[in-house]
Amino acid sequence: xxxxxxxxxxxxxxxxxxxxxxxxxxxxxxxxxxxxxxxxxxxxxxxxxxxxxxxxxxxxxxxxxxxxxxxxxxxxxxxxxxxxxxxxxxxxxxxxxxxxxxxxxxxxxxxxxxxxxxxxxxxxxxxxxxxxxxxxxxxxxxxxxxxxxxxxxxxxxxxxxxxxxxxxxxxxxxxxxxxxxxxxxxxxxxxxxxxxxxxxxxxxxxxxxxxxxxxxxxxxxxxxxxxxxxxxxxxxxxxxxxxxxxxxxxxxxxxxxxxxxxxxxxxxxxxxxxxxxxxxxxxxxxxxxxxxx
Amino acid sequence: xxxxxxxxxxxxxxxxxxxxxxxxxxxxxxxxxxxxxxxxxxxxxxxxxxxxxxxxxxxxxxxxxxxxxxxxxxxxxxxxxxxxxxxxxxxxxxxxxxxxxxxxxxxxxxxxxxxxxxxxxxxxxxxxxxxxxxxxxxxxxxxxxxxxxxxxxxxxxxxxxxxxxxxxxxxxxxxxxxxxxxxxxxxxxxxxxxxxxxxxxxxxxxxxxxxxxxxxxxxxxxxxxxxxxxxxxxxxxxxxxxxxxxxxxxxxxxxxxxxxxxxxxxxxxxxxxxxxxxxxxxxxxxxxxxxxxxxxxxxxxxxxxxxxxxxxxxxxxxxxxxxxxxxxxxxxxxxxxxxxxxxxxxxxxxxxxxxxxxxxxxxxxxxxxxxxxxxxxxxxxxxxxxxxxxxxxxxxxxxxxxxxxxxxxxxxxxxxxxxxxxxxxxxxxxxxxxxxxxxxxxxxxxxxxxxxxxxxxxxxxxxxxxxxxxxxxxxxxxxxxxxxxxxxxxxxxxxxxxxxxxxxxxxxxxxxxxxxxxxxxxxxxxxxxxxxxxxxxxxxxxxxxxxxxxxxxxxxxxxxxxxxxxxxxxxxxxxxxxxxxxxxxxxxxxxxxxxxxxxxxxxxxxxxxxxxxxxxxxxxxxxxxxxxxxxxxxxxxxxxxxxxxxxxxxxxxxxxxxxxxxxxxxxxxxxxxxxxxxxxxxxxxxxxxxxxxxxxxxxxxxxxxxxxxxxxxxxxxxxxxxxxxxxxxxxxxxxxxxxxxxxxxxxxxxxxxxxxxxxxxxxxxxxxxxxxxxxxxxxxxxxxxxxxxxxxxxxxxx
Lengths: 293, 798
Hints:
The structure holds two protein chains of two kinds. Chain A has helices spanning 14-24, 38-42, 79-84, 86-91, 93-101, 105-110, 113-118, 127-132, 150-153, 229-235, 242-254, 266-286, and strands spanning 7-9, 28-31, 50-53, 63-66, 70-74, 136-140, 146-149, 154-156, 159-160, 167-173, 180-187, 198-207, 210-219, 226-227. Chain A is of the alpha+beta class. Chain A has a five-stranded antiparallel β-sheet. In chain A, strands 11-12-13-14 form a four-stranded antiparallel β-sheet. Chain B has three domains: 7-39 and 484-627, Aldehyde oxidase/xanthine dehydrogenase, molybdopterin binding domain (Aldehyde Oxidoreductase, domain 4, 2-Layer Sandwich), CATH 3.30.365; 49-151 and 218-266 and 273-306, Aldehyde oxidase/xanthine dehydrogenase, a/b hammerhead (Aldehyde Oxidoreductase, domain 3, Alpha-Beta Complex); 313-473 and 636-790, Aldehyde Oxidoreductase, domain 4 (2-Layer Sandwich), CATH 3.30.365.10. A seven-stranded mixed β-sheet of chain B has the order 3-5-1-12-9-10-11, sandwiched between helices. In chain B, strands 7-15-14-13-8 form a five-stranded mixed β-sheet. Chain B has a four-stranded mixed β-sheet with strand order 16-24-25-28, sandwiched between helices. The radius of gyration of chain B is 27 Å and the shape is globular.
């Protein structure tokens, strides 16, 4: 289809971008890689009078690791770079894995992780791992910058906590200590270029065989990615036996209420939550082999 | 006999240089253009004053049209022409044509180009617009206001055939399609007696779902009109120019000389582009009205809902066996969901019955096929036409029988397998047949049955065998001598060779085939032979790329044109040399002589052609060829009757793991043995086999059209999941089997029927892995999970 007419704006500072957004209001759309902006505009599913590209703002394309703060990902950092980065592979391979699950190589070469979460699709592939790892989302606003936890960022289908004029500038994922492990598994029909039927991320902090702390995040089973708090409670303070994992998985399943749609039924999604909660925790404990992503 | 089929001049197998040459370095002749993007497809044609066409579709599954108001659209600046049903006459189009097919002399067109009074599915066109830009055309389409009165609609064929069911279309007499082949029996022996004496009767109900062709190139056309000549020139994305020309001439009620159909590059057909799309008629009419070229390019979404797909099937099969596994008799009942129109009704009906007898020796068959109309998107031809559905059910039934009788599944197939020179009571005449060899090869590859003992839980190996047609006996349109293809080879006095063949290349390599055959017969390199971009005005008739007919029928016609060229040339040179022309040959750009004592004689190709023309008073060297299976023609007409000049046989074997919790399938090895006679072009054969497995795996596991109240709800590549490269298993193919006596250079079909055995092999492997009883396709993870749950294989938690 034909791309409708719109005004293309290319601010060169984040302040300028933010001011433009305040000025232009709801008719303006922020774009990084554009993979969730241009195609829906062509299809008529998204209307925007102004498209504001962040690509000319310096300093937003970074991928760094800080011993204290952890992995830092800029809002212009491509998913493909996150997927292939030796740094990410070393520090938190589940994040690379989550990036790799998104769409196709072509899309990942343009699309960004920040764009992926700002699109706020319930089946967003990178959200569960950010929630499980307790990542922080950095936001520039017209008044002042602020930070929110990933779990608080999502407010509904295609809705985030961003206010008028606010732009996500980066993501910070806390470092994994020796005894901390994470994993993300996406369940889909195709091995690439597919939307998740469910996606489950897990983060565990171990003390020997006992789980000191954990976070489980579920994708594609609610209007936003969600935490499986009840299931986490079952695990904390106990040795992670198969029986216990099964118990926690069933509780996670019972606490989620997915919908049926063209991609899967609610009953299948529920049971897959059961299957993938235990698989993702096992995967976290087992770790990612080198070269497996 | 055909005067041109002088087989004395055919290249002898020991002299083949290009044919069947696995070492050859050549690629498809159009590969360079395609890879560099220079190849022009219908949607690439463009002119500065060109107008863009868009169609307006029905808003209901079934409704009466009360009014159409185009005034707002007409007022939009840039809109140049708006068509509605009243701009066309009463002739309906859409089928094979009124021709020499199985229902001879019956016109099977049943679709209006633009609906006048009634719409019968969401893909029906009610109006069309052309404008100076695509955006304006789209906007104008939205401005057209149509008032409807909704009518009762049918979405399920089993409901549509109930007594008193409302009609799917008001012009129908019944919701069951009319064809003379809906019902029949083949009785070599007494049917009831055979069933009564059976040791085992396998009874099963099966279903198969709808998929679509999903060609990379959507339907598109570029049309111009010359008012001085009163001539339309149309470049359509099609695999049958002559079908397009036929229906244009019918609908416009003008003879064929007014319609010049040019064949462009085509980006995939798979059975989806044999017809003339309604948009093509609109483009022609608009070009005539406006004086501008008009182009339509369908969107992917339109491609899904307004173009035809593969028939969903409901099947009931009963097969009577002896204790030792011999098939005694078979009863088959098929219900095909046809959608709103016929699309050449006879083929799916006749073919379904044909597959029920394949690939085994069955003397007694009682079949009934009902192709039922519903108010849904149309279904018609698609790669492995009706065979993918019927042979899935057949092959699952064979495995169930093997299990029940305690016979190895491959032994059961071997016991009943068709053999060379078998003539069935159904009238089918099998000639070359390596069915048993394909079974042996699949068995050896999978180390069966020893490998069965080392399978882990959830791991399985499954086999499936099918047969398919190699071409069809019907040329579709009424033609002299029932010829199916005409081809011409022309040589100028420099020795430059041009081939005029209307074989439709939709990516399968038909153009390369034409060039290769001519080069082989004339002793030239492929680069010496030039393929002419053909049209209905500059080259002879060809029915189109469907029914696995191109290589077998078209290849034979091209070969005959080349051989006539050769014969004419050699006769002239032989006279000069006072030699017997049959001892002359064309080898490596030379005429050579094998006559005793004259072995030193030779003449370069260019000089030979010059000499020929001088001797013929300057006339060019031209050879023509045609092909129709010249045999006892009674075998194709009457009942029972034969269907194809030759048949192919294949066995596939699938080795997979099933994830018992999620239902995911991981195929780790796929073997495919295909008896395509002698492979003409080994690289292309491998490509076709791998492509068939891709499409068969897509059909069996990944792809599914989902409909709600007659509307397709997943018309995108996001939700209509075709497998990606990552989803494809490693594939091993085998295709070296004896040459067919009638096929060109011994070749038979490859690439269509080969999609048919995949579903059965996947299903049988899953059953082996899990113990599941499988009766329906597709086998996507959720469906397998549901079967595991419903058949008590896994625990489900509340």
